[in-house]
Amino acid sequence: MIRINLKMNLWEKLWSKVPEWMRESVNFIASLLTVVGIAYGAAKLVFQIMGSFFKSLNIDLSWGMCFFLVIIIMFMRFKLKQYKTNSWVRLNSISQDYYTVLHDYRNLYFDILSNHKCDTLNQKYLTQLTYSFLRDMLDKICDIFSAYTGSEINACIKLIGKENENVKFDSIDKNDATVYTFVRSSNISKEREDAANLSNNRAVLIKENTDFLYIIDPPEFYNKQYFYEQDLKQFDQFLLKFGQKYQNTTPNYDKYYRAALVVLIRIAHKRLYFTQQNEIWDYHIIGFLCIDTLSTHAFIPEFEKQFVDIAKSFAAVAYVVMNKYMFYLQRYRTKQSKKRKCGNKPNSNKGKLHDGKNNIYF
């Protein structure tokens, strides 16, 4: 049984590397041959039973073949129409999701700006706006990848550092750097949410998570600047060749996901006017956009570049949103600090953003 399972896993892995158009063609030909085989068998049986009757009607076998050819052509047209319809439905869904994200991003940007100018922006409102937008964006990411893969997708944003500390612009110490979850997609299961809340109670080291470590400090055999693996268990077997193993601080992670796509939330230092352009680290990195699924057929090698580019496009938006959030949050805190120095009552909830359970505290 084990040997059979290994052979099946090998076959699935090899089959997933075949281009989609070729897989579709093979499936179509196989379906076509099945239909032709059934039709031919049925026709042969009918001709054998009623051969004398057909001969009395002077019906040539060639007419029968023409009839079956017409059926085949109709079947092909139906499959092509079905494929085209599915493609249009998927395109309509994905284009709407992209539009919604960028539309809401524009509104978020100017809502924050206008409230700041009118001196009505406070920590509660700012955090609600940011958190709500990012959660909705993660939901759209899940919808887009589900449309492409046919699998259920989860997503989250993890920030480097510890909750409530200011953003740092120096290099990342891979030995001590930690991450925490800022926001998750709303489709997370209750069981996974509970497990995530337990892990959020302690510092999650980057070096203890292969997904993050291989991006921050990639080995020579994995120099991608992103993490993309179709099957984490098979990836773990692959790492044994290099004397390494796949690490993940989430207990029993394979209960929640078996494939992962992770990209950096970053910007080049030269784009930031307040940092030097000759930094050793070329990018300012604030965190990771993480996308995962239980399916081992979703993140296939054929679509690696396209899926990574889609993820990076949303990570670029996330950087701007988080940058503005931290900027205006710091300005608000500075303003409140000045008020306290003037004798105003201090805020006992200073700095508390949220508890990782989709509950925001102030």
Can you describe what's shown?
This protein is α+β, with helices and mostly antiparallel strands and 362 residues long. It has 9 helices and 6 strands. The protein has helices at residues 2-16, 20-49, 51-56, 61-117, 123-149, 190-199, 210-216, 232-239, 304-341; strands spanning 153-160, 178-184, 204-205, 227-229, 259-268, 283-293. It has a 6-stranded antiparallel sheet with strand order 3-2-1-6-5-4. Helix 4 (61-117) runs antiparallel to helix 5 (123-149), helix 4 runs parallel beside helix 9 (304-341) and helix 5 packs antiparallel against helix 9. It is elongated and about 105 Å long. The relative contact order is 0.11. Mean pLDDT is 79; it is low at 1-8, 348-353 and 355-362.
